[in-house]
Amino acid sequence: MSCGAPLEIRDVDGTMRKACTADGCSFVHWGNYSIGVGALVLRDEKVLLVRRAQEPGKGYWTNPGGYIEQLEMIHDSIKREVKEETAVDAEVRGIVALRDLPRNIHNVYIAFAMDYVSGEPEPDGVEVDMAGFYSLQELETMNVAGFTRWLIDVALRSGSDGLTEDPAPIVKMDGHGLFRV
Predict the structure, then answer these.
(1) What is the 3-state secondary structure (H, E, C) of 4-16?
(2) Pairing of strands 46-52, 128-134
């Protein structure tokens, strides 16, 4: 995948992996991964939700979210996803939950508590067909995805903001997104 030579399966650090057969090429295929982000935006004791217009989860109400872009910081990814799906501006307060789902494509999902800034929910009409702020009472009659119900519980019952961005780490590390307790 780097030099064009065929790959073979061989032991790399105790795990069978695809690796390049060419002399001098050190390419190893470490696996398939995806990183998703999700927002928990609260306003007036209501949570921002979207109804999925596409699979996976078509017809379910979920928190807004999506996947990070290759050259994008995760906290910028979630602000972009919220804006794209709902037209709402929100700022990251902290990371409140993490889901690890190892499968054929290993998925890691990072949930952010976010502060509402501005805008009224408006669905993008592509990924989501409805968007709005809903109370816990309203959620009882909605088709809310189980994982989203869990995230809402985490956000509402958390005693802290979770991991928060470290704006002034003791060592300057340009290009790093650093979060700490």
Answers:
(1) CCCEEEEEECCEE
(2) antiparallel
Contact 79, 164 (CB under 8 A): no
Length of the chain: 181
Neighbour tally for 139: CB within 10 Å: 17
The amino acid that residue 171 corresponds to is V
Q: What tokens were used for 141?
A: 């009659």
- First vs last Cα of the chain: how many Å apart? 39
Spatial distance between the Cα atoms of 168 and 151, rounded to a whole number of angstroms: 29
Contact 119, 90 (CB under 8 A): no
Q: What is the pLDDT of residues 94-144, one digit of tens each?
A: 999 999 999 999 999 999 999 999 999 999 999 999 999 999 999 999 999
Q: Do you find a cis peptide bond into 102, omega within 30 degrees of 0?
A: no
